[in-house]
């Protein structure tokens, strides 16, 4: 699938994303995230690995749209465990 991230065209595939993220340790999720395999990654980290660009050069929305089109599950905010008082 062809997509544009930070004004640059990329040809991404589901298998290519899985291969690129294999062995990458997820950073702590503080905002938008995407589930790849059994792990949940911050969208900016996924974008950085796939495009090899600085995360400040693209938006989380660009990566989220691409990951959704490839069939990955995206999340708006991290799951917060409820604390009962």
Percent of sequence in beta strands: 15-25%
- Structural class from helices and strands? alpha+beta
Strands of the widest sheet, in order across it, are: 4-3-5
| Helix content percent band | 25-40%
| Outline type | globular
- Mean pLDDT equals 90
Question: How many domains make up the 3D coordinates?
Answer: 1
Q: Describe the biggest sheet?
A: 3 strands, antiparallel
What low-confidence regions span 5 or more consecutive residues with pLDDT below 50? none
InterPro entries: SCO5918-like
Question: What keywords describe this structure?
Answer:
85 residues, alpha+beta, 3-stranded antiparallel sheet, globular, SCO5918-like
Can you walk me through this structure?
The chain has 85 residues and is an alpha+beta fold. The chain has one domain (2-75). 32% of the residues lie in helices and 22% in strands. It is built from three helices and five strands; from the N terminus they run E-E-H-E-E-H-H-E. The protein has helices at 14-21, 43-51, 60-69, and strands spanning 2-5, 8-11, 33-36, 39-42, 73-75. The strands form two sheets. The chain has a three-stranded antiparallel β-sheet. A two-stranded antiparallel sheet has the order 1-2. A hairpin with a 2-residue loop joins strand 1 (2-5) and strand 2. It is globular and about 45 Å long. The N and C termini lie far apart (48 Å). The mean pLDDT is 90. InterPro entries: SCO5918-like.
């Amino acid at each position: 699938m062809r997509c544009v991230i930070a004004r640059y065209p990329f040809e991404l595939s589901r298998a290519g994303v899985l291969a690129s993220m294999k062995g990458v340790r997820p950073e702590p999720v503080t905002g938008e995230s995407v589930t790849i395999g059994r792990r949940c990654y911050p969208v900016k980290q996924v974008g950085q690995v796939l495009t090899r660009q600085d995360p400040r050069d693209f938006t989380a929305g660009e990566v989220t749209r691409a990951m959704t089109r490839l069939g990955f599950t995206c999340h708006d905010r991290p799951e917060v465990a409820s604390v009962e008082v």
